[in-house]
């Protein structure tokens, strides 16, 4: 029986999300599909010395702007050719061709794991991540790639975050002397709306890639990575999976593995990948949960215990397995009835 994975809770995810934000840096990254930037009017005009400048100044955001190594959203839909016959909905992909830290399509998984053993400190010389991809992508995925615009999302997202901070300042001024917990409670409807607006912006700009995060111990790491690598290469999981390499400064007895999906609004695909992780013994239905995070939040530096008090992950494995969380096509997340009822009532939506 597979050992239970030390997934941790929301608070312990904070120390990992900075590592999850690191992306592949290549002169030419075939995994990045960033459309030409569109100029959008921000929701709020910010000054040079406000939070907008602070967000843009972070090395994490600058690095992610360089590569935008995300997978655009798509759903597997079949097409028909001129003869009326149904055409295959999958196309061949070799996004990591020539990249030393990734499995090559003409390389067996065993050969890749022997070439770059994940538990060997020397493997870190290849880079901070090891990558495995599926050799096929949905036809609709390729068509959708042209409209992904990470820069446009960041611009919209930063404006939304700035507007939220200004609103919180107003609420604090109107309730001077009240306990922080009271202010947090007053801000809850605004926070729910902020989450909806951020995810809606992610959908409208095609920034919908996300990942299930696994945290195996050093003892379980080789087995976990082998299982994930094999399943990804066989097309059983998502388009790409990655694992962190050895870091001498990291004293934690766990390593992050990210299993990507195309689109966080595709509930069926997100659930399908999770079910596969359960079937593979990497996640337990009755054990500690794992969490799903969208890349959109990573681009904005939204981690656990953030200043906006947003939930850093979209949902946990427990919520998805129990059908307690659902994402609508516009990006809004429904978690039971508590949040949606309170928010809709407050804003009279």
TrEMBL record:
Superkingdom: Eukaryota
Coiled-coil portions: none
PANTHER family reported for this sequence: UPF0696 PROTEIN C11ORF68
Annotated family: Belongs to the UPF0696 family.
Name the record gives this protein: DUF1917-domain-containing protein
UniProt lineage: Eukaryota, Fungi, Dikarya, Ascomycota, Pezizomycotina
């Amino acid at each position: 029986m597979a050992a239970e994975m030390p997934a941790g809770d929301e608070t312990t995810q904070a120390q990992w999300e900075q590592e999850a934000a690191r992306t592949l840096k290549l002169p030419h990254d075939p995994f990045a599909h960033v459309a030409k930037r569109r100029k959008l009017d921000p929701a709020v005009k910010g000054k040079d010395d406000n939070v907008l400048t602070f967000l843009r100044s972070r090395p994490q955001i600058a690095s992610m702007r360089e590569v935008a190594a995300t997978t655009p959203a798509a759903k597997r839909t079949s097409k028909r050719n001129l003869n009326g016959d149904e055409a295959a909905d999958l196309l061949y992909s070799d996004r990591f061709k020539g990249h030393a830290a990734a499995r090559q399509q003409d390389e067996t998984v065993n050969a890749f794991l022997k070439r770059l053993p994940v538990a060997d400190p020397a493997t870190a010389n290849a880079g901070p991540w090891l990558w495995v991809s599926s050799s096929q992508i949905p036809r609709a995925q390729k068509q959708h790639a042209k409209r992904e615009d990470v820069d446009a999302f960041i611009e919209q997202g930063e404006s939304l975050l700035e507007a939220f901070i200004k609103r919180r300042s107003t609420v604090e001024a109107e309730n001077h002397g009240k306990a922080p917990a009271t202010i947090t409670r007053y801000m809850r409807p605004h926070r729910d709306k902020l989450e909806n607006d951020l995810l809606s912006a992610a959908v409208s700009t095609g920034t919908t890639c996300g990942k299930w995060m696994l945290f195996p111990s050093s003892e379980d790491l080789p087995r976990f990575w082998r299982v994930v690598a094999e399943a990804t290469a066989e097309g059983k999981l998502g388009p790409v999976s990655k694992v962190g390499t050895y870091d001498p400064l990291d004293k934690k007895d766990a390593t992050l593995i990210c299993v990507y999906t195309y689109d966080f609004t595709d509930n069926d695909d997100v659930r399908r990948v999770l079910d596969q992780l359960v079937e593979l013994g990497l996640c337990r239905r009755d054990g500690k949960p794992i969490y799903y995070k969208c890349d959109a939040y990573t681009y904005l530096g939204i981690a656990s215990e953030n200043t906006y008090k947003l939930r850093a992950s979209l949902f946990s494995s427990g919520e998805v397995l129990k059908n307690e969380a659902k994402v609508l096509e516009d990006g809004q997340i429904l978690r039971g009835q508590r949040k949606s009822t309170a928010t809709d009532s407050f804003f009279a939506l």
